[in-house]
Write a structure and sequence with these properties.
This protein is of the alpha+beta class. It has 4 helices and 5 strands, in the order E-H-H-E-E-H-H-E-E. The protein is about 35% helix and about 30% strand. The model has no long low-confidence stretch (mean pLDDT about 95).
Length: about 110
């Protein structure tokens, strides 16, 4: 199992829409994530001192081929529709790595 964390901004004018979407996540989206070996998927919301809201995501990957599973998830038609609704609410960080939407975070420590 490997833990992942990432961060993204959320547009102020889209914050309530984003929260409502995630109060009612489509079951097919959750099922596909599970099929692709994603567990304990969690999103946290925090307004930082710059006044903007940010989303912090945590999940655990329990599979053997992360790239293949993430490609399978991304290729899913329902997931693509879900993302097409969610992405306009998000504001990616300017300093994220090329190819990232959510900026990956480095795990520093994990205590059981």
């Amino acid at each position: 199992m490997k833990r992942y964390g990432c961060v993204i901004g959320v547009k102020e004018e889209k914050l309530e829409e984003y929260l409502e979407l995630h109060r009612n996540v489509w079951p097919a989206v959750e099922d596909k994530m599970h099929e692709c070996n994603i567990r304990n998927f969690t999103i946290f919301l925090r307004r930082l001192p710059d006044g903007k809201p940010y989303l912090f995501c945590y999940f655990e990957y329990v599979g053997e081929n992360y790239e293949a599973d993430m490609a399978k998830n991304a290729a899913d038609e329902t997931t693509q529709k879900w993302w097409s609704i969610c992405k306009p609410c998000q504001e990616p960080l300017a300093d994220r790595e090329e190819g990232e939407w959510w900026a990956n975070m480095e795990e520093i420590v994990h205590h059981c």
